[in-house]
Design a protein that fits this description.
Low-confidence stretches of chain C: none
Strand order of the largest sheet of chain C: 6-7-8-3-9-10
Mean pLDDT of chain A: 88
Radius of gyration of chain A: 20 Å
Largest interface: A-B, 36 and 35 residues
Structural class of chain A: mainly alpha
Strand content of chain C: 25-35%
Low-confidence stretches of chain A: 172-177
Chains: A mainly alpha, B mainly alpha, C alpha/beta
Mean pLDDT of chain C: 89
Helix content of chain C: 25-40%
Order of helices and strands of chain A: HHHHHH
Number of domains of chain C: 1
Oligomer: heterotrimer
Distance between the termini of chain A: 30 Å
Number of strands of chain C: 10
CATH superfamily of chain C: P-loop containing nucleotide triphosphate hydrolases
Largest sheet of chain C: 6 strands, mixed
Order of helices and strands of chain C: EEEHEEHEHHHEHEHEEH
CATH architecture of chain C: 3-Layer(aba) Sandwich
Structural class of chain C: alpha/beta
Strand content of chain A: under 5%
Chain lengths: 231, 222, 235
């Protein structure tokens, strides 16, 4: 299958990118003055968060295709992409929710703070969890998938409003001042490398999950063929 | 279309008027919640203005969810929702009628509840217009999102927990905005622009009204 | 009534990995009363749901034409009415309120005279203002039939409509169905009852494992043949 080689290429690229990024993060980018080595969590945290948001965007688009497409072929593909991005998103979300507090404790003295970006990430994570819960418990037929797709679609304007609300929630004064920006060019290099590496890793996982789902759909079709003849 | 909308809405109001199930469930639950909140938070009455607004919105949110599950229980009873969907009535019209019924029931629940909260927590209503507007706009949002998903989840297992799981993340901005406006309205020492938040709620309502109305027909006919 | 053509072509319905309906095709027109027969699990209810538009077929097409015009969407739903096991009536409204409500759904203003006439037809004029929850199953079924009458559709799809009716009720319903087909309606009715099939059906559609096993005229021979096939499978 053509897609399998895409998956292998992606995974290989991801492996290389991860090595490069790790090297840059730990051996090239200088240790930050205020926070020390803990600052390096930042690279993992932001990369995960950005990719999680991207995954949500893709999930929402897949949901829209699922609900609006007429052809069965495209609906099946959209459905597979939806569940793939949702599972990748939950994984990324877990990473964000773990790295965030670890960094926050050192950077701001507290494990959790309701600052806008962390809060927004939490909401994306929650929406993904709700998406998967719907698929698991609201029926494994077309109906359950439709509800999940609808949730993903509504999540797009929803997240826009959440972001605006959460940013203004803390009042006019930002509650948190980011300690230590990315001053050094090597830091920025490591930053972009991390994002790219995480993107490739996420893409590999999404493609893999997508393929698994497509195989499962194909298996259902084969069972149906058999049932048609022998049933 | 208007006649059909009114017919469906009228039917829901008529049935509820006869049985009063939803209203009683919502009202009793919300009052109990208020009493529990009073015991939980009122050890320091001077702080009432700080968390009074939050308590109002939490109570409204939880009671609304309870009511939303009930609204479609009735349709499920005799397969009536399918009867409606198979009639010549447009799915969007059915949705709007149901959402309006939910809106009215939630408002009716809010009335005694909020009076009770104001009483127990001794909240001064310095700016009643802003407060009432926030309630109306917020209830519209709750009704739209809640009706959409409680219709979908009508037959699902675990719908009692799935409904809040799915709707609450989407409704977080409504709660934030509502509490902000209410804080200003009860004279809490906060520096907030109530009208900015009210416009925010209005924008939310407009976008979600269109989105939910459009999605209902697509989602239910899977 | 304008001439009516219902075309069912290659309907398949899937549940997970199994077919409930495999390849169902037939044509029907006004004035027919088709008895849909089959053992439990043969796919009768599913087929009726697909015909009514309640379920989307996974393959195939259901099309309805009246007077040469193809009906889609709201027009289709206006022309076809289903009466499933659930009855689709509101237990907390009275019989009259139920009928008024359903009449409004068609987009027309409720006509008090027409509703009164319908209440007479279904024999509930006396109990018109009692809440349906208090009715017996047989009376509730009459209200459900009233709903069909008030919706004024061209095609009726009935899922075992005589369940729970006593002998008199059954005869009344069968007579009513006969009269409706004489007036030009197309009626599809699932049934387990050989007697009533022989009595009213003009045609038999026998389903077996989701396929059409038999599609032919009714009458005593047709009915006997069909029920014989069903019994042989069960043995």
């Amino acid at each position: 299958m053509k897609s399998t080689s895409l998956h292998i290429i992606l995974a290989s690229l991801a492996a290389v990118a991860v090595c490069v990024a790790l090297y840059l993060v730990f051996f090239v980018a200088p240790t930050e003055a205020t926070l020390g080595i803990v600052q390096k969590i930042f690279y993992f945290h932001v990369a995960s968060a950005m990719n999680m948001s991207l995954a949500f965007g893709v999930c929402a688009i897949a949901g829209a295709v699922y609900l609006l497409a007429k052809s069965d072929k495209w609906r099946k593909r959209a459905d597979a992409l939806g569940v793939a991005t949702a599972e990748a998103g939950v994984m990324l979300g877990a990473m964000v929710m773990v790295t965030g507090p670890l960094w926050a404790k050192v950077a701001w003295g507290t494990y959790w703070t309701w600052e806008p970006r962390l809060t927004l990430s939490l909401m994306v994570f929650l929406l993904f969890v709700a998406y998967l819960a719907l698929r698991a418990y609201a029926g494994s037929d077309a109906f359950g998938r439709s509800i999940a797709a609808g949730l993903a679609i509504l999540g797009l304007p929803g997240l826009y409003f959440i972001r605006v609300a959460v940013e203004r929630w803390g009042g006019a004064h930002p509650q948190v001042i980011y300690k230590g920006g990315l001053s050094h060019p090597a830091m920025r290099q490591a930053f972009f490398a991390s994002i790219a590496a995480m993107l490739l890793v996420s893409a590999s996982l999404v493609v893999l999950r997508f393929l698994i789902e497509r195989r499962r759909q194909r298996l259902d079709e084969l069972f149906l063929e058999a049932d048609k003849i022998f049933g | 279309m208007g006649r059909q909308y009114l017919a469906i809405l009228g039917k829901d109001l008529l049935v509820e008027f006869r049985t009063r199930e939803i209203l009683l469930t919502m009202a009793l639950f919300s009052m109990l919640l208020v009493i529990i909140f009073a015991f939980a938070f009122l050890s320091d009455p001077t702080k009432a203005k700080d968390y009074g607004p939050g308590i109002i919105w939490v109570t409204v949110l939880f009671s609304a969810t309870i009511g939303q599950n009930r609204l479609f229980d009735r349709e499920r009873e005799n397969g009536c929702l399918w009867g409606l969907l198979l009639s010549p009535v447009d799915a969007g019209t059915i949705f709007l009628a149901k959402a309006t019924a939910q809106f009215i029931f939630t408002l009716l629940m809010e009335l005694p509840t909020i009076l009770l909260i104001i009483l127990f927590f001794d909240l001064p209503l310095v700016q009643p217009m802003e407060f009432i507007t926030s309630l109306l706009l917020g209830t519209v949002a709750l009704s739209l999102v809640g009706t959409l998903f409680s219709a979908m989840l009508m037959n699902a297992r675990m719908k009692e927990v799935l409904l809040p799981l799915v709707t609450y993340p989407l409704l977080v901005p409504v709660v934030i905005a509502g509490v902000k406006v209410t804080s200003v309205a009860v004279g809490a020492p906060v520096n907030e622009d109530a009208w900015m938040w009210l416009k925010f709620l209005l924008g939310f309502d407009m976008i979600f009204a269109v989105a939910t109305w459009f999605l209902f027909g697509r989602m239910i006919r899977a | 009534m304008a001439d009516l053509a219902l075309k069912v072509e290659g309907i398949a319905k899937i549940a997970g990995r199994r077919h409930i309906l495999r390849d169902v095709s037939f044509f029907a027109g006004s004035g027919e009363l088709i008895a849909v027969l089959g053992r439990n699990g043969a796919g009768k209810t599913t087929l009726l749901s697909v015909l009514a538009g309640r379920l989307n077929p996974d393959r195939g097409l259901v099309s309805l034409e009246i007077g040469g015009r193809s009906l889609k969407g709201a027009d289709f739903r206006r022309a076809v009415a289903i009466l499933p096991h659930d009855l689709l009536i509101y237990p907390d409204l009275t019989a009259r309120e139920n009928l008024k409500f359903f009449m409004t759904l068609t987009g027309k203003k409720p006509d008090a005279d027409f509703i009164f006439a319908t209440l007479n037809t279904i024999g509930l004029a006396k109990d018109a203002d009692r809440v349906v929850r208090l009715f017996s199953r047989g009376m509730q079924q009459r209200v459900a039939i009233g709903r069909l009458l008030v919706l004024q559709s061209n095609v009726w799809i009935l899922d075992e409509p005589t369940t729970g009716l006593d002998e008199a009720g059954r005869r009344w319903l069968l007579d009513l169905l006969k009269a409706q087909t004489a007036a030009g309606k197309l009626i599809l009715m699932s049934s387990h009852h050989q007697g009533e099939v022989s009595a009213v059906a003009s045609r038999i559609l026998l389903l077996d494992s989701g396929r059409v096993r038999l599609d032919g005229p009714a009458g005593p021979q047709g009915a006997t043949a069909a029920f014989a096939i069903m019994d042989e499978g069960a043995a």
